[in-house]
Amino acid sequence: MDLTHKLTLAALLLLCLTTAAMLGRHLLTLNRAPGETAAWESDSRPTLERLVARNGKIFSEVADLLKKKQYRAGFERLREIKRLHPDNPHTLVFRARLQYGSGLLAAALHSYRLAVDRQPDYADNNTPLYIGDEIMDLISEGRGKLRRELQLKPGDGRISMALEDLSYLQRRIAGGCE
Amino acid sequence: MNKSVKFPSVDTALLAGTSLGAGAVFLTLLGNPVNSGICISCFLENLAGALRLHGSPRMSYIRPELIGFLLGSFFMAHRGRRFRVTGGSSPLLRFFLGFFMIVGCAVFIGCPIKLILRLAAGDLTAVAALFGLVFGIWLGTRYIRAGVALDRAKNLPQPNGYILPLLSLLLLAFLLLNPGFLQQGSSGPAARHAPILVSLAVGLLIGALAQHSGFCITGGIRNLLLVNEKTLFYGVVATLISALMVSLLSGHFHFGLDAQPASHLSHGWSFLAMTLVGLAAVLVDGCPFRQVIRAGQGDVDAGITCFGMLTGGAFAVGWLMRSTSAGPTFNGKIGVLAGLIFCLTVVLALRPPTGSGPGNRRN
Prior knowledge:
The complex is a heterodimer. Chain A is mainly alpha-helical. Chain A is 76% helix and 0% strand. Chain A contains nine helices and no strands. Chain A has helices at 3-32, 38-41, 45-58, 60-67, 71-84, 90-101, 105-118, 132-152, 157-174. In chain A, helix 5 (71-84) packs antiparallel against helix 6 and helix 7 packs across helix 8 (132-152). Chain B has one domain (10-350). Helix content of chain B is 63%, strand content 2%. Chain B has a two-stranded antiparallel ribbon with strand order 1-2. A two-stranded antiparallel sheet of chain B has the order 3-4. In chain B, strand 3 (323-324) and strand 4 form a beta hairpin. The radius of gyration of chain B is 19 Å and the shape is globular. Mean pLDDT of chain B is 93; it is low at 359-363. At the A-B interface, helix 1, helix 2 and helix 9 of A face loops of B.
């Protein structure tokens, strides 16, 4: 082994050790710095739990009105909330619940679909936002009803669309890769 | 097709196929996404996300199985003295064929292995894709018969073959140390995974067996169509049967078109997407899974294809060139069409001049 080869090996070893040491230090500091991991904490469980709690407060009045079956008042309150929180997909969930309560099955299915599109965690039973069971109850109840309606009105595009929404929601709640 | 290739024994192909099918469903039972116990395209999309090559945290996780496949193949190739460092065959063509293979997979929502797993779980929406895959492979065999083939690889210096195994070790370190510059989702498919060590062990086992047997989903069908050779095809059938058995025993079998996880009802696009995958796989000599295994045994060309596949995974998610449960996106449809155009252009460009036989290859 000539001198150049030996020097190259020594330099390589030195570089490896330096890099490993730097990486080790960097990793240690990164794990301690809360700001650094913020980007991938955005959908973490504690964040989602905080979101659920926040939504609970924001929508408490609508939830009460829903419980009392005061759907018209519920829709009005929801409109106000939407003005204050235009980006909150939970308005779609409450809209769906109110629509279902008012007997608007197709509209409720579509609102649930929009909600799941905006916030996929609604269909993910691994997260606190999951509302798949609630949607599946609606699907079980709605499927037969919509198919019967389609037999009576075969050309009705709204019913076909509602069945499509239903089928989409079923596939989303079934899970798998996205 | 490489004429120097020896066909593996039926026993090893059956063993590899059975381990793959059963192992995939087993991983699902332990936490991997439903019907996606093993899916190279999903895994690559997850890897691309973890490396921040796309911005969806829900699809960001370094799948230990992928590392296991590559290292299992590497160790088995070394043990069996089959570690041969070769490459230099149309690298950019392979890169883009790999890219489009994953775009095709993303539009169907799954690689050929996942296609088998979906069928084994009773998902009838995968039937159109199966026809598409077989059609694409059949098309590829027609071109092979007409003399179309990428140029031959040559021996390369040894360090070339160690790059990807070393990179997979680095990924393993990333997975275990969880450094802040990576992205990892805590909801969606990214959060659904079996325990790391189990995934790694299953990956190592399957990777080693696949290397030993030459297992390949598209290769099995291609050999059957091209030379009526059934060894690898038995492996494919073994994958289907073992996955079906475990699905039935574990209660994961759900027959029908409705409520199938990670599926859509655009059967025409599923057919076309898997036609693309089948054709591209014949041109690069192996399905996405086989490319990973070959990359582990020193095949630098397969390594280039893997980089193309990883890039395809990043673009499929980042540019929405894929399908959702609602069906393929516009970008996804264009991606499939562009892929088919690319494959057919490659085929035309590589076609030997009229009058010359299949043996007249550009070297």
